[in-house]
């Protein structure tokens, strides 16, 4: 088989679980802090990197929300998204569904429009310059209350043409999906695609709620679904994609060692698994790094790696015609590499 990392690099792929604020590299944190005259609690890039020793999701989120406070102007959001899209393009990513956290910005007095204008301008430019397709998914911060989420959805409705979906992220434990049942019902009525983080730290019941109360099209992470055989059977039967993020799981101690990562079990149980980076600037790698690290740790074969990349196209929000064209290009690339 061709060298694993080479195969990973050559395969076209979609990235379906990336928080754009989580692509904010430490150097950019400091550059934007200077540009916007913002004081940071760290005195150097190295000190900030040292803060990236997380014991849990909450440890990470505490740093993540401070990091994103340097994003102020439309230009900042544009620079952030364009830098990520260029980096993703270098990893042979051809389609991105990009999460953003508007409440992390509106709570600091930044207008919703500023965020969306900057991000969507970068998406348009990347499409024109690089051919990479990117769309925006607004996430609701689950540690905040329902009223705040409803106001955020109101703001999103004014940008219905530039936001394709609504997701759910932030502190999972104690914030079950059902807390946002009415928000997601309204989002569904407005025509948004729906997603939720579930089963990263939270119990299988949260994955059930994401499916049956919120009605999501994909589950983000979903690791703990494996604790419930009936749930696994349901996810497999309905081909509900899981957007798995190996390096995130390692850095947030969802797994203690990548060799114990459940990805292989997920595949063996017939789950529709995809590989993603989550917050690449914080977790030590972009999407290809995630593929390579988990493939090495679990000794995945070339055909496993190809299947995972193929699955990103099946799980993506595309029209049937777009998916057929993207999959045809994917299979041609596979043939060209000589892998199956
Ligand atoms: O991995 C995550 N989980 C929950 N919320 C998040 N917000 C950014 N990344 C994450
Ligand atoms: Zn995430």
Automatic annotation (TrEMBL):
Catalytic activity: adenine + H2O + H(+) = hypoxanthine + NH4(+)
Active site: 200
UniProt GO MF annotations: hydrolase activity
Pfam family, any one: A_deaminase
EC number: 3.5.4.2
Cofactor(s) required for function per UniProt: Zn(2+)
Keyword Membrane: no
Site (Important for catalytic activity): 221
Residue ranges constituting the Adenosine deaminase domain according to the UniProt record: 12-327
InterPro entries named among the record's database cross-references: A_deaminase_dom (IPR001365), ADE (IPR028892), Ado/ade_deaminase (IPR006330), Metal_Hydrolase (IPR032466)
Cofactor note: Binds 1 zinc ion per subunit.
UniProt xrefs under Gene3D superfamilies: Metal-dependent hydrolases
Keywords associated with the record: Hydrolase, Metal-binding, Nucleotide metabolism, Zinc
Keyword Hydrolase: yes
Chain positions recorded as substrate binding sites: 279
Function: Catalyzes the hydrolytic deamination of adenine to hypoxanthine. Plays an important role in the purine salvage pathway and in nitrogen catabolism.
NCBIfam families named in the record: aden_deam, PRK09358.1-6
Family (UniProt): Belongs to the metallo-dependent hydrolases superfamily. Adenosine and AMP deaminases family. Adenine deaminase type 2 subfamily.
Protein's name according to its UniProt entry: Adenine deaminase
Organism expressing this protein natively: Rhodoplanes azumiensis
Source taxonomy: Bacteria, Pseudomonadati, Pseudomonadota, Alphaproteobacteria, Hyphomicrobiales
């Amino acid at each position: 088989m061709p060298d694993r990392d080479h195969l990973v690099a050559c395969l076209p792929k979609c990235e379906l679980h990336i928080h754009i604020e989580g692509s904010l590299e430490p150097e950019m944190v400091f550059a934007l802090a200077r540009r916007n005259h913002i004081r940071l609690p760290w005195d150097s890039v190295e000190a900030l990197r040292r803060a990236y020793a997380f014991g849990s999701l909450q440890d990470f989120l505490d740093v993540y929300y401070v990091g994103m406070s340097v994003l102020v102007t439309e230009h900042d959001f544009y620079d952030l998204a364009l830098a990520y899209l260029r980096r993703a393009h270098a990893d042979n990513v051809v389609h991105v569904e990009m999460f953003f956290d508007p409440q992390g910005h509106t709570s600091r007095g930044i207008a919703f429009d500023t965020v969306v204008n900057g991000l969507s301008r970068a998406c348009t430019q990347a499409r024109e310059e690089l051919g990479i397709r990117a769309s925006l998914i607004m996430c609701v911060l689950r540690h905040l209350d329902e009223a705040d989420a409803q106001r955020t959805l109101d703001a999103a409705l004014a940008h219905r043409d530039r936001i394709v979906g609504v997701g759910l992220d932030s502190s999972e434990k104690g914030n079950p999906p059902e807390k946002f049942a009415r928000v997601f019902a309204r989002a569904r009525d407005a025509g948004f695609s729906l997603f939720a983080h579930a089963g990263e730290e939270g119990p299988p019941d949260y994955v059930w709620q994401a499916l049956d109360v919120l009605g999501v099209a994909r589950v983000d992470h979903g690791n703990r679904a494996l604790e419930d055989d009936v749930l696994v059977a349901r996810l497999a039967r309905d081909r509900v994609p899981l957007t798995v993020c190996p390096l995130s799981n390692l850095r947030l101690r969802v797994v203690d060692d990548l060799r114990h990562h459940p990805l292989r079990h997920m595949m063996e149980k017939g789950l529709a698994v995809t590989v993603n980076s989550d917050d690449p600037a914080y977790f030590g790698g972009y999407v290809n790094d995630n593929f390579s690290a988990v493939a090495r740790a679990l000794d995945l074969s070339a055909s496993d790696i190809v299947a995972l990349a193929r699955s990103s196209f099946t799980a993506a929000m595309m029209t049937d015609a777009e998916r057929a064209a993207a999959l045809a290009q994917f299979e041609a690339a596979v043939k060209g590499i000589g892998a199956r």
